[in-house]
Amino acid sequence: MRFTFLSITAPFAFATALVLAGCSDEAGTPFNNQELDTTPSATPVGLAVTATETTLVVEWDDNSEADLAGYVLEKSNDRGNTWTTVPGLLSASDYVDAYAGRADYRVSAQDFTGNQSANSPAVTYIKPTEHGPKTPANPE
């Protein structure tokens, strides 16, 4: 049986294999003298939620790091007490979610080495009420 593992850890595993094999770069510098990337991506900004009749559209500004692997989006349905990660590392800076009466979202960025940024400030979507503001009756 043959297995293929494709994930964000593949570049790290490949680099580790090169170091263990004693490989070097074109200048003859051994890879094991190279510093491992420990710098996380920048925290995403501009997180916003808009609603359609059937969905919530969560969007944020693109990060510009060359080693950006993707985004980790988290959602809370209980006012931020517990967070659930949206499955998979998102490659785009938007996500379409099922419509909800209330939802909180936050996003972080992850690079190919696995370094993850801090979470963005959370944004909250609350379904507007059907009742407009009450206006006082005109006394005559």
Write out key terms for the chains shown:
140 residues; mainly beta; Immunoglobulin-like; four-stranded antiparallel β-sheet; three-stranded antiparallel β-sheet; 1 helix; 8% helix; 28% strand
Report a brief summary of the structure.
With about 140 residues, the protein is mainly β. Helix content is about 10%, strand content about 30%.
What features would you describe in this structure?
The protein is mainly beta and 140 residues long. It has a domain at 40-126: Immunoglobulins (Immunoglobulin-like, Sandwich), CATH 2.60.40.10. The protein is 8% helix and 28% strand. The chain contains 1 helix and 7 strands. The protein has one helix spanning 10-20, and strands spanning 48-51, 55-59, 68-76, 84-85, 94-98, 102-111, 123-126. The strands form 2 sheets. Strands 4-3-6-7 form a 4-stranded antiparallel β-sheet, with no helix packed on it. A 3-stranded antiparallel β-sheet has the order 1-2-5, with no helix packed on it. The longest helix has 11 residues, at 10-20. The termini are far apart. The model is unreliable at 1-24 (pLDDT under 50).
